[in-house]
Records
---
Amino acid sequence: MKLLRFFSRPQSAPAARERLQVLLAHERVAVGDSDLLTKLRDEILRAISKHMQIDDERVTIRMERGAQVSTLAVDIEIPFDKDKKAA
Amino acid sequence: MGKVIVVTSGKGGVGKTTSSAALGAALARNGEKVVVVDFDVGLRNLDLIMGAERRVVYDLINVIQGEAKLAQALIRDKRLETLYLLPASQTRDKDNLTAEGVETVIAALKQSFDWVICDSPAGIERGATLAMRHADVAIVVTNPEVSSVRDSDRIIGLLDSKTLMAEQGERMEKHLLLTRYDPARAERGDMLKVDDVLEILSIPLLGIVPESMDVLRASNVGSPVTLSDERSAPAIAYFDAARRLRGELLPVTIPGEKRGFFGKLFGRKAA
Ligand SMILES: Nc1ncnc2c1ncn2[C@@H]1O[C@H](COP(=O)(O)OP(=O)(O)OP(=O)(O)O)[C@@H](O)[C@H]1O
Ligand SMILES: [Mg+2]
């Protein structure tokens, strides 16, 4: 019996349950289109766009929605123009 | 210039999303650049099947509406670096999916990917017709069962009339992918035979994917079956189908039977 379990693969249903719980928790708190992460994303981008042209080559956005913690990473490549004074 | 494939069926729940993910991963395993696009606006699931549901930043509608750049909406697979996903929107209305928007997105994707796989929603409405509109090749996913075969026939009619290729007087390349094939039921004679389905639909066979627990397990853990369990029967069927898509001539084996299917498959003249 034990041997059988040793050779059988781990159950996959617990993974399904855990993934669904995290996903649905995030989807349920979203009002209309946006959860907190989405709102932060948009506000950060708006702030950036006041100072520079947002170019998809230069701005990378990553999100990861977790059970306890979510992460939002906005990676911006800021070209340095020495002839230009700060706005 | 990449090839655009639509994975379609008419009937719901026959295995379009499972097949889009599995074939996408199988093609990307060879180092070819693949993007799988979810056209099921409002009921997206491809992200979940590919295990990227927590990492969605933007979606197809955001790109079409000009709220995000295409490059920002693409999610790279964690396991295969040549595999990408373009998710559908979960919250926006289907009406945001415009013909011009889809055209622009597909044209841009064709520039940077070898394969653009469009996972169609069920039905014959806007989402389904837009998913097939720009395709070069169609994969018609069918279960060996009467209503699925009937709906596939209907979809084949649309592929031959409502697509860009059809409107330009060209004939779209169409392939039949028979999924959820149950050898035990075939043995008992309670399931439509492969030959019968092929004769009725008369399009060439891309592969036969057996009904399998491995598909369920793959969806539970969020991995295309061709990545989670590459030696399983459904994964092997998808890998072979991917090779046929690349143009290789491989005999199709019917699950539960030993003999190949080569002669019949290519002997028949495809409509
Ligand atoms: N070969 C298979 N063996 C066992 N189960 C399968 C197989 N193919 C698909 N399924 C299951 O069938 C169900 C529907 O599959 P899937 O979501 O891929 O279909 P679909 O055509 O994309 O559906 P929809 O029309 O709703 O978009 C899922 O639960 C999936 O796990
Ligand atoms: Mg689907």
---
Amino acid sequence: MSALLHVDGVSKYFAMGGLLSRTQTAAVRDANFRLEQGTPEIFTIVGESGSGKTTLARMILGLETPTEGEIRYKGNPISGLSFGAARRAFMTDVQPVFQNPFEAFNPLKRVDRYIESTAKVFRGITARADLDAAMDEALASVGLSLAEVRGRYPHELSGGQLQRAAIARALVCKPKVLIADEPVSMVDASLRMAIVNLLRTLRDDLGVSVIYITHDLATAYYISDRIMIMQKGRVVEMGAARQVLDDPQHPYSRLLKASVLSVTDAGQGNLEPARDLMEASRTALEHADASRLVEQGEGRLVRMAG
Amino acid sequence: MQVERDEIYGIAGESSSGKTSFIKVLAAAIRPPLRVVGGSVEYNFAGQRIDSTKASEAEIKAIRWRHLSYIMQGSMSVLNPVRRIEKTFGDFARSPLGLDCRAFRERIEEHLDHLKLPKSVLRAYPHELSGGMRQRVTIGLATVCRPEFMIADEPTTALDVVVQKDVLSLLRNVQKEMGASIVFVTHDMSVHANIADRIGIIYAGRLVEEGPTRTLFTEPKHPYTAHLVASLPVIGDTRPRPSLEGRPPSLADPPQGCRFHPRCPLAIDRCKREVPPLETVGTRHRSACWRAQEVEPLVRPEATVAGAGA
Ligand SMILES: Nc1ncnc2c1ncn2[C@@H]1O[C@H](COP(=O)(O)OP(=O)(O)OP(=O)(O)O)[C@@H](O)[C@H]1O
Ligand SMILES: Nc1ncnc2c1ncn2[C@@H]1O[C@H](COP(=O)(O)OP(=O)(O)O)[C@@H](O)[C@H]1O
Ligand code: SF4
Ligand SMILES: [Mg+2]
Ligand SMILES: [Mg+2]
């Protein structure tokens, strides 16, 4: 198999503070994974706030340069795709969807104009009828239609519609990879499932690979093929999503799972924090410098001491 | 609706259903263009009765923070970005508490300690704190005067699961200890499942169902609630989850009759014409649906439990 996207030993350090008291934040440390061509999947990245998920996504999109390592798309380093036609071809293939749809759209610009300009720039479509057809097709695949969206400003659509329009904007490029950074954290339960089900349809019907970034382990379990769990910039566990979430091995993965609010005992007020796991997770973090990812078979990796 | 002493009343509903507008009225934070056109909100603060929809500025000021506190949506909107946390505490709590400077400082530090926040946060600016710490500070502000009634709008929505659980458990412990009442608004049903004693469901500006938390999850009597509780995925369970088709109705021109009828799987002709009243359907359980008795849970709870254990 050949790699569609290969994140190869990627780290990102940010300099923080003034010139004199310069410290470095390691936003991402030595991330490695690959998505294969011809096998579309939903690859989920989870982790607490500040664990480096967005930074990793931004590097994959070429919006941030890795401090170490390299990201390759179809074998070509994306750092070499920074200009002109090569850049445009890459951006057509790898499209983002951001967390807050209200921020992603300019409030003064009509939603259909956004989708239209994406179609013009990335697909090179110019004729009116072709533009409309491309937009309508993309909107239809997210359960909207051009008629519903045409002429509307962002505030005239509900949060869920706007998020679906944002996905349609990405789809108008006919991308190979969709990078969705917390696409559902702003929307309520019913719309959340509409969007999550949509990501699955994209994989199954359109063959799009999705990098799904989320805090929400329940939706991750529901749709992902593989999952990667990050703690303070480090990958602590990775593997088949169901396997990892049914039986997490790393203390931080266990803490995450234990912190998911359960609805099965609704009304019991079950909010006791998992203190032992918090402690274990903290200890693992303290000793993380002397740890490495250990192969467990079937593509499962767990960070361990040594 | 009525909220009892020492109770957490959860309010759920989709975005733009009117949750924030409603609790602004409860919180006496009524500013144009928001206007109360009818009804009243009566509080009983240790025998002192006050209607938040009619009270004067001065009357509200007298109860604000000491009896009634409001945690607004988005913690940053309460925390002034250019004021250190200690200044904000001073702005909020100094005059209601009526303590001198030293005693006030001690009270705040003790309170922060109780919320597991280091003293150093007092010297910090909001942006220097993590999201979870900011949310604890906001809860600190809302509870420092030990109010009898607290109103919280999406206080944990932006937090990750580990921090969220921590903040929720903190809020509940503080509430229990003070015997206070909380109206807690969020669209996240799994949060309600774990913090609320009772839940009220709002759809398109109306309370459509209300009942004890467990009852709403296991025996919902409104199709919208049945949908909400069934749409939550559970780790260990990959059965397809339904998503609600259609969009929230425009409140400027809501559907006639039952406002849920265009999206309701049980809708009959009558629903298009007549507004169903909110009626008692069980113990402390009310629903506004013509077919309340026919509503069935969409996902069997037993099956979910079994799936989760697998
Ligand atoms: N431009 C930047 N300058 C300095 N530090 C940064 C920058 N961007 C990110 N960081 C730091 O890198 C770390 C990871 O940030 P990132 O935003 O990628 O996390 P995240 O997992 O997406 O968090 P969240 O869930 O809150 O969005 C954090 O410590 C953050 O403060
Ligand atoms: N300041 C305002 N001016 C006009 N309409 C408003 C204002 N605030 C809220 N609304 C409208 O009131 C309805 C309910 O909004 P809101 O209370 O914010 O809902 P929620 O908190 O459930 O998202 C929405 O249709 C919204 O557009
Ligand atoms: S009244 Fe009719 S439309 Fe409304 S919720 Fe009940 S069955 Fe559905
Ligand atoms: Mg992020
Ligand atoms: Mg709101």
